[in-house]
Write a structure and sequence with these properties.
single chain; alpha/beta; ten-stranded mixed β-sheet
């Protein structure tokens, strides 16, 4: 049975129409989630975890290895919602369309400042320009073409960089919350016009950007949060902004990054998972009963790789799973839109 939800957004209200979003039945707030975007999934290995029904994988890993979609669907006994991640606020050298679309005489003016030292090959785009927004929409069309069920557009919070007095590396576009709101709503309106290969509506999520949650939730289908408990900084956290999603039956996938999850070798997974203190802080009750929470390695070799510890139903020292990846698959030829 299809779950049908009616959504309204600012744009829809203006035109007084309603969009109907058909959501796959397995896509609910209790769905077990895995995100593996460091390298391409090793499609020759047994699928781990075998019971995750929501997978977040990199759009361009899939474009270079379309077999990833079939692998995820055939190795799992349950239906799987596949979310394709891409960088939306910035474009980067490894993107299939970087040289052919963005760094061209015609479109180079849409590239702004680099992220900085941590990600030197990523460039903020001018999301205020309709052309740039339309070019990002072609990534959503590619996701539909490849067989993804949803998209996870990252870095829709350039306003935070531009408003932070301590941030040296601005986007170059003086972005405000309104700019990013307009950007994500424009992408959402477009995504919802597309039908996936499975016959559902192309789903689109909110990545971080807690300041926008109240304004955009009605137009989006899920959220993916990083560090909402601010485990690493000991802050108040922004988890609470997202309970509004769960109240509407929309999943919130929450990623926490305990330092102790990484093993002694860079990028490896500590088999007993995060320390008791970090596990408890990451998996505590705050939002955890509502959100689908995973613990991941944050930086360097292991950044968002196959290493995951699950909170739900597990205890300190348990719930660690490693999804096999194959970095040799990351650089192949890209499938493009017909
Ligand atoms: C999710 O799990 C909780 C706790 O087991 C349960 O109360 C709730 O009804 C479940 N929600 C859905 C949408 O299945
Ligand atoms: C874009 O391409 C030009 C010429 O091919 C190159 O010199 C430049 O470094 C590229 N820009 C970026 C941001 O990668
Ligand atoms: C800002 O960018 C410059 C040039 O890429 C880099 O040297 C500097 O470290 C960056 N600052 C931060 C805070 O990332
Ligand atoms: C951003 O703001 C600064 C300071 O007001 C201004 O000099 C600059 O031209 C602005 N840049 C853009 C792209 O709007």
């Amino acid at each position: 049975m299809k779950t049908t939800r009616f959504i309204t957004s600012t744009l829809f209200l203006i035109s007084s129409t309603f969009a109907q979003v058909n959501v796959p039945p397995e896509f609910d707030p209790n769905a077990t989630f895995q995100i593996t975007i460091q390298h391409t999934l090793d499609i020759t290995a047994p699928l781990q975890p075998a019971d995750a029904t929501v997978w977040d994988v990199d759009l361009y890993h899939v474009a270079r290895n379309p077999g990833v979609i079939e692998y995820l669907r055939s190795r799992n006994s349950n239906p799987v919602t596949i979310i394709c991640y891409f960088n939306a606020g910035l474009v980067q050298h490894s993107d299939c369309d970087f040289d052919t679309v963005w760094n061209t005489t015609e479109n180079r003016h849409l590239l702004g400042n680099g992220w900085g030292e941590e990600f030197p090959d990523e460039f903020w785009i001018n999301i205020k320009d309709q052309k740039a927004r339309d070019l990002i929409k072609t990534r959503i069309a590619l996701a539909a073409h490849l067989g993804c069920d949803g998209v996870d557009p990252d870095n829709i919070d350039g306003y935070g960089v531009d408003s932070d007095p301590d941030e040296e590396n601005k986007t170059g576009w003086n972005l405000t919350e309104d700019d990013d709101e307009r950007f994500i709503l424009d992408l959402a309106t477009y995504a919802h016009t597309l039908t996936t290969k499975r016959g559902f509506t192309m789903l689109i999520g909110q990545k971080n950007a807690p300041e926008l949650a109240e304004r955009v939730e009605a137009s989006l289908d899920f959220a993916v949060l990083e560090d909402c408990k601010e485990l690493r900084d000991g802050g108040e956290g922004f988890c609470n902004e997202y309970t509004r999603y769960v109240e509407k039956g929309k999943p919130v996938f929450s990623i926490e990054y305990p330092r102790t999850l990484e093993g002694t070798r860079a990028g490896s997974c500590r088999t007993t998972g995060a320390s008791q203190a970090e596990y408890t802080a990451a998996c505590d009750e705050r939002g955890n009963d509502l959100f689908s929470t995973v613990l991941k390695i944050k930086e360097g070799e292991g950044e968002l790789n196959g290493c995951t510890q699950y909170c739900s139903g597990n205890e300190v020292g348990t719930g660690v799973v490693v999804t096999a990846e194959d970095s040799t698959l990351d650089g192949g030829e890209c499938v493009t839109l017909p």
